[in-house]
Amino acid sequence: MSKVLMISPEKCIGCRTCELICSFNRMEEFNPKQAAVSVLAYDEAAIAVPIMCMQCEDPSCMKVCPVGAIVKAENDAVIIDVQKCIGCKMCISACPLGNITYSPKEKKLIKCDLCGGNPQCAEFCPSGAIQYKEATPANLNKKRKIGERFKDLFGEVE
Questions:
Q1: Mind telling me which residue stretches traverse the membrane in this protein (predicted)?
Q2: Which of 24, 86, 150, 158 is most solvent-facing, going by the fewest CB within 10 Å?
Q3: Going from the N-terminus, what domains does the chain have, and what CATH number goes with each?
Q4: Residue of 43 and 136 predicted with greater confidence
Q5: pTM of the model
Q6: Nearest-CA neighbor of 112 among 127, 97, 126?
């Protein structure tokens, strides 16, 4: 059975460990700007939410890529083939949650690839706000509900 990345915003303590471990794993430096996850703080609501690629079942980013550089890997991770990518950034616009960014330093796109099947953000999250779990119907339903909450919060993206 496949696994999915699960986000529990109510558990996030805003420590930003996920950003640090992601950037270190990707670039061997602690630089949140080079991370594929961002923790957004909502001061009015007194919450923090880790935002990252949710590895969509039917990814918009993959549909708009003019050169087919975005593909689904064997572990269901949606990944960017850097050899094919031309840097047009259409995928950034297509992502409904804004989970793809561009690094001017690397001159390439930054997107979660599930660390090859062992997401370090989930492994090191001290509060359990990010978990990598078996894709059960209950987990998929929870993931769908969280996505709907984000959609309601940010408005529908077309």
A1: none
A2: 158
A3: 3-154 (3.30.70.20)
A4: 43
A5: 0.80
A6: 97
pLDDT tens, position by position, 99-121: 898 888 788 899 999 998 899 99
pLDDT at 97 over 50: yes
Positive or negative: CA dihedral 117, 119, 120, 125: negative
Instruction: Please give the DSSP secondary-structure letter assigned to residue 29.
Output: S
d(CA 66, CA 18): 31
Q: What is the pLDDT of residues 22-69, one digit of tens each?
A: 999 988 999 998 999 999 888 887 788 898 888 888 899 999 999 999
Which residue shows structure tokens 């087919």? Answer: 68
Tokens of residue 68, six digits: 């087919």
Residues 6+ apart with CB under 8 A from 79: 70, 71, 72, 73, 111, 113
Cα 43 to Cα 40, 47, 50, 127: the distances in Å are 9, 7, 14, 19
Measured at the CA of 12, the angle between CA 71 and CA 31, to 5 degrees, comes to 60
With b meaning 16 or more CB within 10 Å and e meaning fewer, what string describes 72-103? eeeeebbbbeeeebeeeebbbebbbbebbbee
